[in-house]
Every structure is written in C-alpha cells, then in structure tokens.
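This protein record is not my work; I was only asked to verify it. The record follows directly below this note.
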Amino acid sequence: MASTSPAYGDSGLGVRAPLLHLPNYAVATFTERLDRHGGEPGFEAVIGYDADEPIGYAYGNTIRSGDRWWTRMSEPMAPEVTADPVFALKELGVRTPWRGTGAARRIHEDLAGNRPEERITLMVNPAAGDGKVLALYESWGYSAVNNRGAQGVPPA
C-alpha cells in the first residue's frame, strides 16, 4: 500500500461486494450509516491505496459517556471507561486481494495512530470471517471487554 487519503468517497471499493445482498450491507443502508457517522463529533476516515487503486478504508468518531454506542452493550461499562472521550472505530475493510498483506493494519494505524483519545473501542462479530476478524484485532492488542446486547438491530 503506497498511501492513504483522509477522505472517503463512495462505497464502491469492492470491500463489501460479496455482502451486498444482506440488508445490513446494502449500499443504501451503508450510505445512511456513513452519512450519520460523518456528522458525528470527531469523525475521520481514510482510504488506503496501492498506487492509484483504492484497496480499503476505515472510519470512526469520538464517543462520550451516554453515547448510543455504550448503551448497546450487554453489561454497563464502568464509568472510568466511558468518562473520557473514546475513539470508536466504526468500519474497517480491505479488498480481498490485499487481505493478509498488512494493508488493514496500515489503514488502521493511519486512522487511529494520531487520535487525541486515549482509548479505542470497536465492535466485532466473533463469527466474521470464521473468527479471523476477531483474531486479527486481538493480534493488534485489542481484547474483548463486553458483548453487544441482544437488540435484534444490526451494528451501526
């Protein structure tokens, strides 16, 4: 991966192509979610490139105590965890040919590496990629601290 960009264009990076038939991954659903997240405090996004070809993206924003993010946990988070602003990594995806190359880590670092927040949080479906997604985040130093509550609502 040669570079990243601090902007986010359309969702046509090919990352989601195999999942577009699922309601939570449909272009309209993704666009609505991106529009909502893009208007939240501290929003930032990057696109990773190989030469001039977009290969992946990541985005997130600042969350604070009482944010919708925290209310979706199955167990309340300790006040010392939610008292200070936290960076919520909302999406990270890499196109298939670049998976396993370190591109996801570089995109992640370009997005999260210079954030002012002291903590980063993310939600991972443990079954995603047959557990590979969770294992990847754990290899980067993340650890599970809670579960998402059973709300019957797709992640946002």
